[in-house]
Amino acid sequence: MDVSVSKLPQKSKLPAPMNRSLFGANSSCLQSPRTYSLQSRLNKENNAPKPKVAKRKSEEHSDNSQNSKRFKPNNPRVNSLKTQSMSVTRKAARRSLSNALKIGRGGKQAPVPPTQVVPRPRKPLTTTTSKVNTGRQAFKPKRVSPNSSVCSTSSAPARSKTTFKPTAKPVASTRTSGGSAEKKSKRKAWDIKGQLEDAKEELAKKTEATRKNEGVLENILQRLQALESEKQVIVQEKQTLSTDVNRFQQDLDAVRSEKLKIETNFREKMNEFERRERQNNLEREDLQQQLRVCQKSRDELDLECRQLRREKISFADRNDELEKELKATRSLLETTEIKLQNQLKICDNQGNELMVGEEERRKLLNVVQELKGNIRVFCRVRPLLKKEIVEGGSNEHMQMPGKAGKSLSITNDGQKVVPFSFDRVFGDSSTQEEVFADVAQLVQSALDGYNVCIFAYGQTGAGKTYTMEGTNSEHELGIIPRSVKLIFKKCQELNKFGWVYKLSVQHVEIYREVLQDLLQTESGVKLDIRTTKASKKNSVWVNGLTEHEVTNYNMVQALLRQANQKRATAATNANDRSSRSHSVFMLKIVATNELTGEQHDSVLNLIDLAGSERVAESGSCGTRLKEAQKINGSLSELSNVISALANKDSHVPFRNSKLTFLLMDSLGGNSKTLMLVNVNPTKKAANETINTLRFATTVNKCNIGTAQKVVKFQ
Could you tell me if residue 398 is inside a domain? Predict the structure, then answer.
């Protein structure tokens, strides 16, 4: 039996450090000095050269064959001793090898990481082999794979190791490799004694070899005990290292968590830093822009300063010149003041003369108006409408002979020419401004303290409302807005003579013999006409009628718009917008002269009468028919009043109609009255136009007396 000491099993593999990749392949932070020493010794033993086998298998086989020839199995005693020796030797070897293998395994082997260095097999304790020829192949212990060895880093610290030396050398084989030993002569079969001596000699040799092998086995057992103790130390170190690894793993987890927090905080800080950096960049750019603007402003201010310095120098020179001129101007001013005082004295004298001249003008104007007559009649022919021109209408039947503009002749259906003459006749081409130019003198009489009445009369569709009110255009304003403008203008001019005016407005309409306030915001207020017997001045007035004080033209214009929205109008066959009521606009004037103490009041009545109409031509029915009947009735009463005044009857029927009752002051001789007759230029309305002009002629011949002015002194 051959036992090779070099075939001893290696030590079991040590546990690899956890998270090796975190600390590096050569890191020694997790290794104790004892582990490092053991690993170094294992590495040295693995690097040692492998021992050579003493005998080849062929030689062993030859020796076994020779031994088998020497000892015959015929002797039972020899076979028994041989079997007993082999059994003892074999059991001891198996026990030692089994213990070595148990120590070498050390549990389940861990797989070797790809980055770890696999140590070489442990260096054998001795290279001497012992061989006992037992007639079979020598037992060879199983070699432990290098992968089962303890894995550790090459940089582990060295540790002490125990070396065991064999106490006796193994018994050399009785046979040489060349087979040159002497062969004993074979005993005869009958030489039992010789065979017994040979067997005793062989047994002695075997016993000696067994004794030597037991010495070797004792060394091996001592080595195994040392390895067992070393294994326990390594297990303890493993537990310590596992504890350290767990602690280090916890520390590593804490470090990782702290690292994650630090990284998160770092990223937040970086983001905040980048945000602040961007903000600072923007602020820096803004500041740079402001700096550039400031530098530009500074340059501009520097330029302005230089210019101002130059201007200051020029102004200083100019100031010297102006001081010289000022001295000359002061001397001239003193001279001028003396002249001005002289001129003021002259102006005072001329002002007194002008006041006397103004009073003289008023008297002369009143004389001229009286010479013209108290009731004057103007006639105005409206132009043809577009619809009338399309229908083939013409005004060839109307002629205006003479250049004075006071005559009008109309050819009727019987081809008879009927002539008429009035104070003023306006053709179809006349403008609103031309008409008001002849009316303005009469309007100005209201500022002088006289009552003035201007009313438009004519058939429906003849242009009465257009003449009195006009349109919103500045060039087409009617008599009412132009009169108000003239009144305010003259009031401002007369202020320098000491006159102060207070103006108020009233506006009423007569609809189907019922009085309605056009400036009243409340409804259901009943109005009635009353008279005052104490004085002939303003003897007729309307009870319950609102009065609005005005100070400028815009206020009057707003009141006129309000009244136009409430006035009754409707469309008929004769007119698209026919007035269905009589409109009376009253402007009350109270004048006071602060210099002389003179005071007087007057009323300017501007009346737009509803037009007379033929029911057959207008096609009125229902409510329109009743309106037409009331309008024609009130105009008929007006005709009766005019006839009574013309005939100088003792009784004048003013109270037969609300219209004549309201015009009693204007037609009774205490007013300057103007009737503006509007006529239709179409030929089909010729007969109605002739009747209207005949009534106007009657009015023109009517003498109602001279208007009186009532003057008071404070």
Answer: yes
The domain that holds 645 is classified in CATH as: 3.40.850.10
Long-range contacts of 535-540 (CB under 8 A, 24+ apart): 536/670, 536/708, 537/670, 537/710, 538/451, 538/601, 538/603, 538/665, 539/664, 539/665, 539/670, 540/661, 540/662, 540/664, 540/665
The model's pLDDT over 679-702, given as tens digits with 9 standing for 90+, comes to 988 888 888 888 889 888 888 887
What domain range is 611 assigned to?
373-713
By the 8 A CB rule, do 707 and 670 touch?
yes
- What total of structural domains would you count in the chain? 2
pLDDT digits (tens, 9 = 90+) for 296-327: 888 988 898 888 888 888 888 888 888 888 88
In a domain, 11, yes or no: yes
Whether residues 382 and 513 fall in one domain = yes
Q: What's 175-195 look like in SS3?
A: CCCCCCCCCCCCCCCCCHHHH
User: Helix or strand or coil: residue 678?
Assistant: strand
Number of CB atoms found within 10 A of residue 702's CB: 22
Q: What is the helix (H) or strand (E) element at residue 268, kind and residue range?
A: helix 192-372
- CA 152 distance to own-chain centroid: 71
Angle at 680 between CA 675 and CA 684, to 5 degrees: 140
For residue 343, the SS3 value is: helix
Q: Which amino acid is at 582?
A: H
Does residue 328 lie within any of the structural domains?
no
Q: Which of 181, 319, 151 is nearest to 241 (CA)?
A: 151
Q: Tell whether pTM > 0.85.
A: no
Residue 367 within a domain: no
Q: Which of 253, 276, 296 is the last residue of a domain?
A: 253
Q: From CA 215, how far away is CA 211, in angstroms rounded?
A: 6
DSSP 612: B
CA–CA gap between residue 429 and residue 405 (Å, rounded): 13
Tens of pLDDT, residues 563-586: 988 888 777 766 667 778 899 999
CA 690, CA 429: separation in Å to the nearest integer?
A: 21
Task: Evaluate if residue 505 carries a pLDDT over 90.
Answer: yes
The C-alpha angle with vertex 266 and arms to 263 and 271, in degrees rounded to 5, equals 125
- Number of neighbouring beta carbons within 10 Å of residue 364: 10
Provide the residue type at 694 as one letter. Answer: R
Burial class (CB in 10 A: 0-12, 13-18, 19+), 358: middle
List strand residue ranges (DSSP E) for 274-367, in order: none
Among the candidates 216, 238, 253, a domain finishes at: 253
